[in-house]
């Protein structure tokens, strides 16, 4: 495999933690450390992932929380079995296109109670995963131990990181869709007593969230759907005209599924199946698997052009097919076949961009984390409330906001992802894992909405085709094909470290190029844990976030 690349930074040596006993990587150091401490107590990779996810719900509330969803890939070393877990919520039984039309909406609102139309599934995902850890992996820990670090940070406080500070400033900026500071409930959770968004280094305490976590720790995950917390959610929504009911919450379950798989250079790339957009992720890799990516030269105009065009092809299929498979047939076997990948690859012309895509959904904030343990168990977990602080609706005196994932639904009855009662919407969340000989080789993923499949493809090609270390693959400049708030077209965003000559050549080929900062948070917070041939785990975290790969 070629090992050279074209950037001015030197290969990272300070940020390559190694371990035989286990590791957790996440976009916030406190979460990574909480997961590592659970491993030190004898917990499994699943236990560590739950603890880290719970801490992220406290210290990264702009990106994830109790009011959101999650998706999992869980590898059980004893059985050498990989399973997917769908912790995403279904639409309220009262949610129909006709109801939104009656209320004067041609699309599901981005913020507010009508955006919070899907059951928060994250806690159900934690619960199902913990049950698996106890019964299948013989975890010695109890449920309350996993939530204790999050409860402590919520109660005693933590220092606001760069990402959270930026998120709070954004939702108090007055920009369209970013005026959450106008809500007294929202300000009381996250702003100073004087009404200002706390900046980097300020201390934030969340006593209401600490009490909610204490209830969950004492009573188990079902408390969220049947107990005091459920009543807090429904009370807030009913008062503001929302649609979810107690019946919607009580009837919710997380579901175990079989991962999707596709070959990539002799490795097996895996993601959860729809309604997860892992289908698009694997389509990109399936297209690239039909091409000689290594001869393009990593970091060249040819490389970025092919990656963007493969993404374009995969997103066309995503827009036609991706939805809840309980409501529509999705031909995953055909879409991931080598024959389909060959047809898609044949449509990529090196001298010009293909026709423009319809505008893609804008934005989306998320966390990805990975965990491995000494037994060889591995977890790839992604968790989100969708846009910054989700719907902005605060559960009554419970300390968290509800997601706005429901705004991904269409209201056109002919659209494959049309809103229907009890339906799961298409989801941008995409955890990934790369297997070699049936065992985890690379546990990886990223936040970033439409950027998730693109970043996963970037890391895959850079590690597999170009021989980069996980940290160097994450550090290297990234791109994003997609739409931002206020934009009508999908442009190709390039980080500033990509040479101007490359940007000009991509423009010549028809791409609408926009230059970004050198390490733009818009590109997502990626992470990875790679297993070296001698069994040593090597971790990486993204300098675009506040993360850490914490080794045991």
From TrEMBL:
Q: Which InterPro entries match?
A: GGT-like_enzyme (IPR052896), GGT_lsub (IPR043138), GGT_peptidase (IPR000101), GGT_ssub_C (IPR043137), Ntn_hydrolases_N (IPR029055)
Instruction: Please list the GO terms describing molecular function.
Output: glutathione hydrolase activity; leukotriene C4 gamma-glutamyl transferase activity
Q: What is its EC number?
A: 2.3.2.2, 3.4.19.13
| Keyword Acyltransferase found | yes
In terms of Gene3D superfamilies, this protein maps to:
1.10.246.130, 3.60.20.40
Catalytic activity entry: an N-terminal (5-L-glutamyl)-[peptide] + an alpha-amino acid = 5-L-glutamyl amino acid + an N-terminal L-alpha-aminoacyl-[peptide]; an S-substituted glutathione + H2O = an S-substituted L-cysteinylglycine + L-glutamate; glutathione + H2O = L-cysteinylglycine + L-glutamate
Please report the PTM annotation for this entry: Cleaved by autocatalysis into a large and a small subunit.
Query: What GO biological process, any one, is recorded here?
Result: glutathione biosynthetic process
| Keywords, alphabetical | Acyltransferase, Glutathione biosynthesis, Hydrolase, Transferase, Zymogen
Q: Where does L-glutamate bind?
A: 449
Q: Where is the active site?
A: 366
In what pathway does it function?
Sulfur metabolism; glutathione metabolism
Tell me which Pfam families the record gives: G_glu_transpept
**NCBIfam families recorded:** g_glut_trans
User: Which family is annotated?
Assistant: Belongs to the gamma-glutamyltransferase family.
Q: How does it assemble?
A: This enzyme consists of two polypeptide chains, which are synthesized in precursor form from a single polypeptide.
The protein in question is named: Glutathione hydrolase proenzyme
The source organism is uncultured Desulfovibrio sp
What gene is behind this protein? ywrD
């Amino acid at each position: 495999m070629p090992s050279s690349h074209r950037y001015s930074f030197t290969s990272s040596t300070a940020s390559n933690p190694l371990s035989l006993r286990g590791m957790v990587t996440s976009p916030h150091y406190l979460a990574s450390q909480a997961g590592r401490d659970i491993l030190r107590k004898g917990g499994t990779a699943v236990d560590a992932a739950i603890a880290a996810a719970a801490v992220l719900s406290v210290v990264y509330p702009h990106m994830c929380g109790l009011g959101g969803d999650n998706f999992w890939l869980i590898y059980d070393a004893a059985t050498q079995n990989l399973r997917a877990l769908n912790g995403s919520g279904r639409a309220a039984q009262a949610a129909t296109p006709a109801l939104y039309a009656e209320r004067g909406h041609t699309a599901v609102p981005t913020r507010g109670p009508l955006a919070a139309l899907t059951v928060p599934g994250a806690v159900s995902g934690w619960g199902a995963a913990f049950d698996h850890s106890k019964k299948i992996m013989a975890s010695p820990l109890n449920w309350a131990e996993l939530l204790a670090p999050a409860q402590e940070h919520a109660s005693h406080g933590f220092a606001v990181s760069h990402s959270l500070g930026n998120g709070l400033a954004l939702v108090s900026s007055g920009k369209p869709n970013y005026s959450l500071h106008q809500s007294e409930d929202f300000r009381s959770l996250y702003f100073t007593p004087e009404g200002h968004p706390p900046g980097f280094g300020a201390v934030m305490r969340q006593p209401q969230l600490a009490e909610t976590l204490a209830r969950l720790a004492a009573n188990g995950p079902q408390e969220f759907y049947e107990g005091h917390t459920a009543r807090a959610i429904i009370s807030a929504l009913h008062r503001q005209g929302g649609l979810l009911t107690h019946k919607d919450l009580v009837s919710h379950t997380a579901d175990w599924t079989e991962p999707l798989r596709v070959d990539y250079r002799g490795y097996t790339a895996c993601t959860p199946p729809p309604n997860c957009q892992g289908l698009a992720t694997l389509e990109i890799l399936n297209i690239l698997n039909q091409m000689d990516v290594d001869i393009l030269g990593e970091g060249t105009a040819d490389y970025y052009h092919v990656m963007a065009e493969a993404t374009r092809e995969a997103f066309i299929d995503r827009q036609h097919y991706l939805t809840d498979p309980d409501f529509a047939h999705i031909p995953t076997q055909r879409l991931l076949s080598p024959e389909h990948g060959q047809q898609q690859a044949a449509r990529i012309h090196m001298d010009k961009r293909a026709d423009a895509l319809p505008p893609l959904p804008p934005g989306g904030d998320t966390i990805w984390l990975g965990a491995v343990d000494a037994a060889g168990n591995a977890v790839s977990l992604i968790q989100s409330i969708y846009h910054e602080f989700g719907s902005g609706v605060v559960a009554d005196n419970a300390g968290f906001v509800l997601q706005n994932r429901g705004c991904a639904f269409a209201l056109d009855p002919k659209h494959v992802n049309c809103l229907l009662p009890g339906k799961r919407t298409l989801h941008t969340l995409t955890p990934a894992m790369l297997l070699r000989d049936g065992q985890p080789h690379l546990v990886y993923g990223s936040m970033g909405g439409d950027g998730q499949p693109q970043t996963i493809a970037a890391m895959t090609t850079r590690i597999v085709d170009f021989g980069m270390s996980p940290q160097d693959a994450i550090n290297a400049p990234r791109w994003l094909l997609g739409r931002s708030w206020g934009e009508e077209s999908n442009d190709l965003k390039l980080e500033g470290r990509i040479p101007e000559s490359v940007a000009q050549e991509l423009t010549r080929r028809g791409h609408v190029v926009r230059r970004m900062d050198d390490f733009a948070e818009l590109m997502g917070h990626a992470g990875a844990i790679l297993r070296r041939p001698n069994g040593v785990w090597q971790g990486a975290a993204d300098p675009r976030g506040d993360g850490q790969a914490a080794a045991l």
